[in-house]
From TrEMBL:
Substrate binds at residues 32, 54, 81-90, 139, 200, 209, 229-230. The active site is at D81, K83, D86. It comes from Edaphobacter aggregans. The keyword Lyase applies. The gene is pyrF. Residues 26-245 form the Orotidine 5'-phosphate decarboxylase domain. This is Orotidine 5'-phosphate decarboxylase. It comes from the Bacteria. One of its GO terms (biological process) is 'de novo' UMP biosynthetic process.
Length: 257
């Protein structure tokens, strides 16, 4: 479905079974750590289980573009999750600043509005610029939390509204929960990148997430890519935890190819 969109020009692993590279391309491990040293230690323990690594606010504020470049130097694709949300001029400037590091993906908050997203899309539209993802409704929010910030719509309807706004503004893909991905896939078509966090393999702690699903369910419903943090980074054996998730992804990919 989204194979060609996702692959970042890296060579396939010739000794892996068919579909293995696709599964790797569809898993992003969230490096939510306070320092480059801790993040790189985890990367070593992943033993190449994934192609994409997500650098979020905690790590980027500590380690900056240097770490993005270091991860790319090790052959990884970098998903820079800064969830930009400010006036259009400021967001466009931020996109230009981070573009220099060569991240493949960058997030903005869809709640920043159409003009902000258009400004971000224009700033990213340069050679080597990142593909932009619009974060719709955070997976840590349920209907009650949404109502608390004055949004009466259900998470499903709010995600759909923001996704349509993002697409019209020229954004490449959206971040949503597994609960909305099926409806979004129908509306957005096969090429739009739909990225799903809030992933919890059976038996793992839910923590602060609210709209969650297993890797298998999220991929079966149409997710292009999964974002997984603590179920891998806090596991006793992060490499084994990542490989178990790849197996779940692979099972679905094998039946849909
Ligand atoms: O944009 C994101 O990546 C994101 C959006 C969202 O709605 N929910 C969400 O959890 N995330 C990120 O996905 C990761 C999930 O981490 P875990 O809950 O530890 O698996 C974190 O790095 C979050 O910042």
């Amino acid at each position: 479905m989204t194979k060609s969109v996702l692959h970042d020009g890296l060579s396939s692993d010739l000794v892996s079974p068919p579909g293995a590279q696709e599964a790797k391309d569809r898993l992003t491990v969230a490096l939510d750590f306070p320092s480059a040293a801790e993040a790189l230690k985890l990367v070593d323990r992943l033993e190449g289980a994934c192609q994409w690594l997500k650098v979020g606010m905690e790590l980027y504020y500590a380690a900056g573009n240097g770490l993005v470049e270091a991860l790319r130097g090790r052959g990884y694709s970098v998903f820079l999750d800064l969830k930009l949300h400010d006036i259009p001029n400021t967001v466009a400037g931020a996109v230009r600043s981070v573009t220099r590091a060569g991240a493949g993906l960058l997030t903005v908050h869809a709640g920043g509005g159409a003009a902000m997203m258009r400004a971000a899309a224009e700033a990213a539209n340069v050679p080597g610029g990142p593909r932009l993802l619009a974060v719709t409704v955070l997976t840590s929010m349920d209907a009650e939390e949404l109502a608390g910030v004055g949004v009466a719509a259900s998470p499903g309807n709010q995600v759909l509204l923001l996704a349509r706004l993002a697409k019209a503004a020229g954004i490449d893909g959206m971040v949503c929960s597994a609960g909305e991905v099926e409806a979004l896939r129908k509306v957005m078509g096969p090429e739009t990148m739909l990225v799903v966090p809030g992933i919890r393999p059976v038996g793992s702690d839910i923590g602060d997430q609210r709209r969650v699903a297993t890797p298998e369910v999220a991929i079966a419903r149409g997710a292009s890519m999964l974002v997984v943090g603590r179920p891998i980074t806090k596991a006793a054996d992060p490499g084994a935890a990542a490989r178990a998730i790849l197996k779940e992804i692979g099972r679905v990919v094998a039946t849909t190819d």
